[in-house]
Amino acid sequence: MAAKLNFQRKFSALLVYGRPPLVFGGMLCGIAVMWTRNPQLYTLGVSLLFISMSFDMIDGWLATRFHLHSTLAHLTDRIMDKIVYSIIFPLVAVGIMWRVLFTSPAGTKAQLLHGIFVLILCVAVLIRDNFAHFMRFFAMRTGPEPELREFTRLRTIVAAPVGTLLYAYAFYVPGDPTSLTYIWTSWLGNLHLRVLFLIEIIFLIINFGSIAAYCRKYGTYCLDEICDEDERLRLNILSFFPNSLTIMNAVMGLLAVLFAYQNRIREAYLFLIGAAIFDKLDGALARKLGLTEPLHLQNRAHHISFGGILDDIADGVSFCIVPAWIFYLLLADVSDPVIRQLPVGPVAVLYTLMGIVRLIYFTIDRTPIPGFFKGMPTPAAALLVAAPLIMFNQAVGDSSESARYWGILCFGLMIFSAIMMNLYPIRYLHLGRFIDRHSWFGRLNLLLLVILIFTPYLGYAALIYMFLYVLSPLITRRIQPKTS
Asked: Would residue 161 count as lying in a domain?
């Protein structure tokens, strides 16, 4: 039994300590591929990273299966992670740019945009990894031991596979070897940009979500160490986190416009969904941290905070200006004579102004209804008007006769949504708070969204979903505000 346990520990140590040499070998192969463009070196590099990824997935399962947990083992595992990610993600960023600049034929603007986005993604991964180390450091000093379950950690689930996938794409070299390994890896190297964008957007959102999860889990211990019972300093530090999520809301909206300029409307719509998620998270985090009632201001009847103003600005950008901008961008240059006669510009301006009016009313409203919005919320309106733009763009690209009808529908929805946002007697359920109280609903919708992302039916499903939300007051009006 002792010999068997000793073998298991040695094998587990091999899995942990074997990853950095494998990834370092992959880096050398990547550099050699950029210099020589040798398909065999490309195949070898992808194989080394695939083996490293397999080790990364197996070592935690092995430790759990044979009860090999120890503080030193997990600390060592995390150090190996930092070494591996410090090698692979900067290498991937360089490799993507190399593929854009030096492969034949020359890269397009969409590929350059993808290279820039991968650079941002790699920076986000490294920031997340160092931030997680920083938060765990405070937890180990002042609080309980950090979570050690392997499969609850982000990198085990997605980071290593995404790094391997990006490596296979970045350093792909055309060739004609008879190796089955090359045939498989070359398939990864020829993935469509749309698939890569979808995977990378999801991975980016997961990384920011992981940062928020670490703040929630270990943030109290960190603040206790820094603030030393200074409540005002504590609130000022805490306000940074929801404000950061609010800024990410606006960033997602601007990224949506950037992708729309590259005629990638599906990806732009995903960024609008991401903006809506961050809009939900910043309010939930502010309430959880007790920031909705600022210090020494609890007795004031009404208070407009900096966070509230920042939230309105971010919502105005992501849910008022961005959908109108994308709408005008797509419909203004269409050659169809019927659509060209439509006042696209004035309607885009109308939607933007009505959305801003809705946000101003929401800010100054002194009699809010708990769990409900008065009028359609701006995130819902943005997702409603942007959904048919996906189908319109596809129809225009295919020169389909249905493009005219989709364009007319988009035009009508802009006016309809602008009106619905300002029909204040109609109460719309606050979906964010409803999901907080009914986690099964949020998980089900997230699962459906992930499935639909990889199908051509995302726009149709989103349009139907948002129309159901438009009609939801017919049912949700029976819900009492205190129980919503």
From this structure: yes
416 pLDDT higher than 90? yes
CA 332 – CA 343 distance, rounded (Å): 9
Full domain range(s) for residue 104: 21-229
Instruction: Among 211, 229, 247, identify where a domain stops.
Output: 229
Model's pTM, two decimal places? Answer: 0.67
Cα–Cα nearest to 430, from 478, 484, 357, 392: 484
- Distance from C-alpha of 198 to C-alpha of 200, rounded to nearest angstrom: 6
Q: Quick check: is 251 in a domain?
A: no
Nearest one of 201, 278, 178, 291 to 238, comparing CA atoms = 291
* Most confident of the following: 73-77, 174-178, 208-212: 208-212
Per the structure, how many domains does the chain have?
Answer: 2
pLDDT category, 350, cuts 50, 70, 90? very high
Type of residue found at 137: F
pLDDT digits (tens, 9 = 90+) for 73-98: 555 666 777 788 888 889 999 999 88
Q: Judge whether 412 and 380 are in contact, CB under 8 Å.
A: no
72 contacts: CB under 8 Å, gap ≥ 6: none
Over 60: is that where the pLDDT of 262 sits? Answer: yes
Phi-psi region of 67 (alpha: psi -120 to 50; beta: other; left: phi over 0): left
Residue with tokens 């765990």: 136
Could you give the CA distance from residue 446 to residue 46 in angstroms, rounded to a whole number? 31
SS3 68: coil
The mean pLDDT of the chain is 78
Residues present in the chain in total: 484
Q: Are residues 225 and 308 in the same domain?
A: no
Helix (H) or strand (E) holding 427: strand 427-429
